Amino acid sequence: MADAEAAKSLSALLHGIAQSVFYKRSDVTEELLRAELFPELPPLDFRVLHDKMRGVVKSVATADMDRAQLEAFLTAQTRKQGGGGLSAEQAAALSRFWKSQRVRVRESLLAQSRWEPGLRGLSWRVDLQAAASRGHAAHSGPVALVELELGRAGQDSEFVCLEFDEAKVNEMLKKMADIQESMDRLVQHT
Amino acid sequence: MLVSDCDKKKKKNRRKKKKRGENVVRLSTVHTSGFDSRGSQRGESIFKSAGKSNISGDELVSRLEDGSSKWPKASLQVLHRLWTEHGASVHAQQDVQAILSIGQLVDMQWKLSMAVSSDTCRSLNSPYVCLLLKVVEPSGHICQRSFEMTIPQFQNFHKQFKEMAAVMETV
């Protein structure tokens, strides 16, 4: 019974650490985790546990360990002498944690490494100009209006509205075909 | 045949701004003609930024006074009244105009990159496409916008443009 509870608290601690370190939840603090999960543990003891778990999680995430690498790493950690190693229960909790969170942690690390705004959304419509006060012959014909939603992680979106005539759309398509070609060549070489 | 909704809204706003904003602008030209060129430039930019920051009539008057000591008191009183009545709509027009500003693409540059490693993740191994757009706004001002896309995002982006072209062909 006590073991199951201890395992649950440990798992929850690892998830809490992930929330704070990777998913940028600033409200998930060390103190909150202690109060919720290990209320009977003295603050200093909890700090030692928390820091050790965080260190291990960060190492595993930075190296993006696969199953084999993780097993090897955890085994080495459990064999460590002195207080710096991991217990069997802790290793088991870490193994379960990484199995379920690896993809999500990796996604958030990738997102953190993107410093340009990302494309959050794209909408478009095609208009046909019915009439114009100055009779621009060049503008007769369909016009595409494109709205790009751009934004950096954690920031509000910016909207960029552009208009394209048919020629411009075809220019864009040609460039995108070039990009696709480059991508195909890249895949062939790897 | 479709008539652009965007264009309709733009025309409506231009008419509105002409009616209300014009009173304020006309008054300022009368009084800045006696000033040096710096004074009149400052005057115009004070009104523009006043609209953008949605300040009160009191604040506008104090900014004008800071800009130049030559504003006659009577003019300031009229300006205060006009701004209190119409300042909010000038601000609203500027807001809407910013949203409805539709640019034209002048140039598009691209690069295909592979994010290899970072301080938080040793093996990123993540390819991405980065686009740099040169856009000319209705005001004539050219600005650059850049953004990143993952490979699936780029492929969807490409697909959208293909659909756009198909629609434009049939219209």
From TrEMBL, chain A:
This is COMM domain-containing protein 1. It comes from the Eukaryota. Pfam families: COMM_domain, COMMD1_N. Transmembrane segments: none annotated. The gene is commd1. Belongs to the COMM domain-containing protein 1 family. One of its GO terms (cellular component) is endosome. InterPro entries: COMM (IPR017920), COMMD1_N (IPR033776), Murr1 (IPR037351). One of its GO terms (biological process) is copper ion homeostasis. Signal peptide: none annotated. Coiled coil: none annotated. Residues 118-187 form the COMM domain. It comes from Scophthalmus maximus (Turbot).
UniProtKB/TrEMBL annotation, chain B:
Residues 104-171 form the COMM domain. It comes from the Eukaryota. InterPro entries: COMM, COMMD4/6/7/8. It holds the Pfam family COMM_domain. Residues 1-24 are annotated as: Disordered. One of its GO terms (molecular function) is NF-kappaB binding. Residues 9-20 have a biased composition (Basic residues). Scaffold protein in the commander complex that is essential for endosomal recycling of transmembrane cargos; the commander complex is composed of the CCC subcomplex and the retriever subcomplex. May modulate activity of cullin-RING E3 ubiquitin ligase (CRL) complexes. Down-regulates activation of NF-kappa-B. Inhibits TNF-induced NFKB1 activation. Belongs to the COMM domain-containing protein 6 family. This is COMM domain-containing protein 6. It comes from Scophthalmus maximus.
